[in-house]
């Protein structure tokens, strides 16, 4: 790919794109379009250094302002867009890129369509589906730059001990290093959302702890955070029906005493992994535990 193949992308005007799309954003369908050029120009630069941009996925293309900037930095872009009017518009607006096999538009729901093999994902997500979309992408282990509601972004990136730290922080940080790289005011969008937004960089990494059963680990964390004001000891006892533990008393017996005395908000992801390993070993009938008579 040479630079000259990309000269028709990278500088489109957001307002002109919205006009050409022929449909205004509908907040009921999560359609808040970026209209601040400076913000749009920065978004692709937040990909981690050395990211592979051979095939960038965008979820929710809308009028295509971010698509335009992504086509300027990526070899190929695939956009998933649920609204047929915007899907048609994207195909027309970027016809040259489609003809050059640099753009694919998939019309459909990002929670349902098969995802292509992609090397990185950059998106201004539809807010009502942003959590589900993020947790569909995170296990795939690719670099992600995603726009979320500010509060959601802060909770994702929160460190143990902070007020925002919770199940969302542990689950996201299990898959990636999570950084809020920029807060975006609602004036950057048309129509303006009621809330502020934030751009989050998620850099995949293998966790520095072992998790044998990821589903159980995530369920265990979810269960314990339903009792975040209780000690871990009481949380394990009170949430066995949620985490699926048959013998919570055996878990409390076997787990680290100091961790049992803490509250969920002060337990780091690696410490949750250690607790979940004990819970799986001692608390589940038919698990690995010799204590349970295996
Ligand atoms: C916040 S707008 C972002 C539009 C554009 N990328 C921008 O930044 O201006 C979200 C877009 O996602 C689309 N969308 C909403 N729910 C979707 C879903 N479940 N799957 C795919 N696209 C969706 C909307 O139609 C809308 O175009």
Automatic annotation (TrEMBL):
One annotated GO molecular function: rRNA (adenine-N6,N6-)-dimethyltransferase activity
Gene Ontology CC: cytoplasm
A Pfam family matched in the record: RrnaAD
Top-level taxon of origin: Archaea
Source organism (scientific name): Halohasta litorea
Name of the featured protein: Probable ribosomal RNA small subunit methyltransferase A
Keywords: Cytoplasm, Methyltransferase, RNA-binding, rRNA processing, S-adenosyl-L-methionine, Transferase
SMART domains for the chain: rADc
Family: Belongs to the class I-like SAM-binding methyltransferase superfamily. rRNA adenine N(6)-methyltransferase family. RsmA subfamily.
Class of the enzyme per the UniProt entry, highest EC level: transferase
This protein's record includes keyword Ribonucleoprotein: no
Main location (coarse class): cytoplasm
EC number: 2.1.1.-
Binding site for S-adenosyl-L-methionine: 32, 34, 60, 81, 109, 124
Subcellular location field: Cytoplasm
Function, in words: Specifically dimethylates two adjacent adenosines in the loop of a conserved hairpin near the 3'-end of 16S rRNA in the 30S particle. May play a critical role in biogenesis of 30S subunits.
